[in-house]
User: Fold this.
Amino acid sequence: MDPTALAWLLAQLGPSSNPDDLTARYHRLGTARAVALEVLAERRAALLTDPLRLTVDGVVTVDRTGNLAGVERQITALQAAEGPDDGPASADTTTHEIEAVPLRPARRTR
Assistant:
């Protein structure tokens, strides 16, 4: 993985993300955007395994619904965004080539 893709991943996922883990995922998945989406999907699943809101009357209230909403917004934004190593948009995969050839007369003229 090139340094640009790693820097983009760290910007998307936070500087505390393990670069070795990101590199291994990149080699398996092929694009930085796919790596970011996989990591965010795992974070979302981890948030959903525990209760999102916990209240102990008069003592403490822990509410992680905002964290879940933030991760889901980030997933939605990444699905629409283009990663640093993504090719051209899939809707515009038509390529145009121009070929230049010299024009010569059919017969030699004097």
About this structure: The two ends are 62 Å apart (CA to CA). The CA atoms of residues 47 and 101 lie 62 Å apart. The mean pLDDT is 85. Residues 32-49 form the longest helix (18 residues).
